[in-house]
Structures are given as structure tokens and as C-alpha cells.
């Protein structure tokens, strides 16, 4: 019996699964020595090239590298590279106290006097030693990013040129996926609310001098609305600054705070009411971040909902909002109060859109800077403005007053977040405060 066992073991040792006779296999074969079938396995950290030689260069560890007789790029254990050989993610780790440079090469080698080019800025921590072993930090909008620098945070992408941002230049071709997002999915615009039996009153372009009177009225009727606010009210721009009354989120911070405290949802409408189609992607990003910046100062939090000025947008703008975690809210009813100023005509549009509560809730576009919509001063020009006519009609039909928060996410959580560093960034020319 013992003789049979020894004989079987000897046969197994000499014959592989295909029946080919093998020589005794060596292990721990060093660099520049033969390896492979019938010879043996390379020492740990070395690759057996397709030509059967142990080493750690790209020729040894890529292509038809033989993983049965050593390691290979992308395999475990990671290959251990020498000076002037490739290193970094998916390749090798530098041995012998060498650094892995930002360009993926081990060094410095004996003839190279510039240690900083390998071990300084851009040195790849984790693939060799570095003069600074500090882990990469989170980088913010417009800051540099990449190997040895850090990763973009808060949904931003690291461009091929090593800059954090949300535009297609950052997130598309050449985007560095190891240091931030890439190809952010577009945000989904909302035109109606899937929650039934309700109606969304929305008011654009404030805060302004009429907003407090509108808030008084809505409170008296226990009606809720959504306000899409400009960081610096649009009237200041279309009047070339020739207004004596201050407008905008910081100038009317108490109005902004009151609207939020009264249970209305506040959303963004851009900083300067700029049409997204006419702006560069980078400037569109600043239209958002400068608005979140002033909201953070006035409210201590920033909205996660936005309405495009003029309702104009393209897919690239939705992708920017998607990366920033912001939901675009549009509308399906437009009484054009900014154009005709006729409250009764606006009511007719509302009645035609929503004759009765139904399976979806409609969203109406109004403006709290239009006198015939939101003026509650004794000197107003109409007996009843559009806000009054709308609320009375909706209550008579038993509509439920909804806000944007009822239509996004869980339908219960207000659409705000704590400000991130990216929410506080101004365009290079500086911050344009109220």
C-alpha cells in the first residue's frame, strides 16, 4: 500500500493535467532569470513575462504576463518596481525606498539628482515613499486636484488639467475618475407634481418690496407657496442699478428668513437672473454658487431646488445641477403675469389648467415683483390681485397647497442642506454682494 501511494504521488508530480511531463518546479526565481512552465515561479513581487523571464518592467508585467508563475499588473501581490520602472494604480509599487512620481515612474535613480521630481508634489502616496505622507485632501470648486494633491468633493469632477468643477470640461473627456466624479447624470426637471389633489403656487424674482405683503396674505389664508429667489434681485440689473430701494437676499435677509420660518419653500433662481443658454457653463456654475453663498449667509442653509430663468436650459445645465445635487423645478401653468398684468386673465389660465383636484398637482408660474400679482399696499391699482384670486379659487375647489418639498424626494423633507465649501465660491472677478 505504501509503495502505491508513493508511486501515485510521483506520477502526479511529474505529469500536468494535459499529460505533459514536467520538470521539478523552482520557486523564488530572481530578476533576469528564466521562469515559466517546466522552470518555476518568480520571487514575490516579480512578474514572469510572456517570454519567460522574471522582472518588474512594463514588458514583464503587462501583455501576456504569466500569472501562474509570478504576479502581473492588476494582480495581487502588486509587482515591486525598481528605479525608472512604471508604478502607480494598476501597475506596481516602488521598492527600495523609492518614490512613485506623479508621472508613474520610480525614482530617483542614481543618475538623477532631483529628488523632488519624484518625492515632492504629485508623489503617489501608497506606491512608494513620499516626502509628505499626508493623505490626499478634499479639494473644492476651482482648486487643483489629482495625484498627490487630492480629490474633488461634493459631486465635482477632476478635469484632465487637474481642476475641480462641474462643467463638461471637467466631467467629460479626460476626467480623472480616481479623483472625483465623472459624467454626472443629469438632474431630472419637474414640471408637475406626482402628489394628487394639490397645487403649487410659485413666485419668481424676489425677494422684493412686495414680498412681505404677500407673506402676510398667505399666512392669513394658511396657504403655502414656493419662492424662487435671485441672489441679487433682477430689477437691479435691468434698471442699471438706478433703484433707491435695495433688493436681493442679503438686502432683504429678514424677509427671506420670515418666508422660511412661515413654512414656505425657498429655492434658487440664479444670482443675476441670467439665461443659462447665453452663459458659459462655468458662469452658470457661478450663478448657482453665488446664490447658495448669500443664502448661507442669510439663512444658514442653502436650497437644493432651482428654477432656470426664462425656463431655458440644455442637457449640460442639467448635468451641472446633477453633480451639485440640485433639483430643477419648472411649471405647467403660466398666466404671463409679467406681460399682461391682468389678474382676471391670470385666474382664467389657472382655472383652465386645474378645473378640479386630480391625480397630479399643477405648478403655476407667478412673480412677486409684479404689482398686479403681489401688491397688497393700499395704493394698489386693482381691487384684487392675482395672488388673492388664485388662493380664493383654489380653496373653493378644495385644492391642497403644496410646496416643491412635497414633490421631491420623500415629499416630507424641506429642500435645504448645510452649505459646503463649494457653495461659497465666487467667480474670479470677486463676490457681487447686495
From TrEMBL:
GO aspect biological process, one term: carbohydrate metabolic process
UniProt KW keywords: Carbohydrate metabolism, Chitin-binding, Disulfide bond, Hydrolase, Metal-binding, Signal
Gene3D superfamilies: Endochitinase-like, Glycoside hydrolase/deacetylase
Residues spanning the signal sequence: 1-19
Pfam families membership: Chitin_bind_1, Polysacc_deac_1
NodB homology domain sequence ranges: 197-402
Keyword Nucleotidyltransferase recorded: no
Domain of life per record: Eukaryota
InterPro entries attached to this UniProt entry: Chitin-bd_1, Endochitinase-like_sf, Glyco_hydro/deAcase_b/a-brl, NODB_dom
GO terms of molecular function: chitin binding; hydrolase activity, acting on carbon-nitrogen (but not peptide) bonds; metal ion binding
Residue ranges of every copy of the Chitin-binding type-1 domain listed in the record: 32-74, 142-184
Disulphide bridges: 42-54, 47-61, 152-164, 157-171
Keyword Flavoprotein: no
UniProt cofactor(s): Co(2+)
SMART domains to which the protein is assigned, alphabetical: ChtBD1 (SM00270)
PROSITE patterns referenced in this protein's UniProt entry, alphabetically: CHIT_BIND_I_2, NODB
Entry-linked PANTHER family: CHITIN DEACETYLASE, CHITIN DEACETYLASE-RELATED
Protein name: NodB homology domain-containing protein
Amino acid at each position: 500500500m505504501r509503495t502505491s501511494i508513493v508511486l501515485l504521488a510521483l506520477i502526479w508530480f511529474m505529469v500536468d493535467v494535459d499529460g505533459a511531463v514536467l520538470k521539478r518546479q523552482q520557486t523564488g526565481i530572481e530578476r533576469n532569470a528564466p521562469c515559466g512552465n517546466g522552470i518555476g515561479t518568480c520571487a514575490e513581487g516579480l512578474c514572469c513575462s510572456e517570454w519567460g523571464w522574471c522582472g518588474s518592467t512594463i514588458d514583464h508585467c503587462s501583455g501576456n504576463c504569466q500569472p501562474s508563475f509570478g504576479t502581473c499588473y492588476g494582480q495581487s501581490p502588486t509587482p515591486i518596481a525598481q528605479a525608472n520602472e512604471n508604478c502607480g494604480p494598476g501597475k506596481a509599487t516602488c521598492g527600495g525606498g523609492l518614490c512613485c512620481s506623479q508621472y508613474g515612474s520610480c525614482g530617483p535613480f542614481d543618475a538623477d539628482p532631483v529628488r523632488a521630481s519624484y518625492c515632492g508634489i504629485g508623489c503617489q502616496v501608497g506606491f512608494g515613499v513620499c516626502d509628505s505622507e499626508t493623505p490626499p485632501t478634499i479639494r473644492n470648486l476651482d482648486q487643483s486636484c489629482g495625484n498627490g494633491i487630492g480629490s474633488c468633493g461634493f459631486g465635482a469632477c477632476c478635469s484632465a488639467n487637474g481642476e475641480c468643477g462641474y462643467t463638461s470640461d471637467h466631467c467629460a473627456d479626460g476626467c480623472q475618475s480616481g479623483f472625483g466624479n465623472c459624467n454626472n447624470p443629469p438632474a431630472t426637471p419637474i414640471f408637475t407634481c406626482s402628489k394628487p389633489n394639490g397645487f403649487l403656487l410659485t413666485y419668481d424674482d424676489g425677494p422684493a418690496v412686495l414680498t412681505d405683503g404677500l407673506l402676510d396674505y398667505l399666512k392669513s389664508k394658511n396657504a403655502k407657496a414656493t419662492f424662487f429667489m435671485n441672489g441679487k434681485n433682477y430689477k437691479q440689473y435691468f434698471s442699471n442699478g438706478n433703484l433707491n430701494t435695495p433688493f436681493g437676499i442679503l438686502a432683504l435677509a429678514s424677509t427671506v428668513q420670515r418666508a422660511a420660518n412661515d413654512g414656505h419653500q425657498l429655492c434658487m433662481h440664479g444670482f443675476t437672473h441670467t439665461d443659462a443658454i447665453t452663459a458659459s457653463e462655468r458662469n452658470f456654475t457661478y450663478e448657482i454658487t453665488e446664490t447658495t453663498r448669500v443664502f448661507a449667509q442669510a439663512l444658514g442653509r442653502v436650497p437644493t431646488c432651482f428654477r432656470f430663468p426664462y425656463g431655458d436650459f440644455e442637457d449640460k445645465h442639467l448635468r451641472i445641477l446633477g453633480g451639485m445635487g440640485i433639483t430643477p423645478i419648472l411649471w405647467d401653468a403660466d398666466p404671463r403675469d409679467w406681460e399682461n398684468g391682468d389678474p382676471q386673465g391670470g385666474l382664467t389660465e389657472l382655472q383652465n389648467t386645474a378645473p378640479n383636484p386630480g391625480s397630479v398637482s399643477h405648478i403655476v408660474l407667478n412673480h412677486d415683483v409684479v404689482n398686479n400679482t403681489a401688491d397688497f399696499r393700499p395704493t394698489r391699482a386693482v381691487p384684487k390681485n392675482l395672488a388673492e384670486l388664485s388662493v380664493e379659487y383654489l380653496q373653493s375647489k378644495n385644492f391642497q397647497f403644496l410646496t416643491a418639498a412635497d414633490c421631491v424626494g420623500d415629499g416630507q423633507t424641506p429642500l435645504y442642506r448645510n452649505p459646503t465649501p463649494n457653495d461659497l465660491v465666487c467667480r474670479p472677478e470677486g463676490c457681487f454682494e447686495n
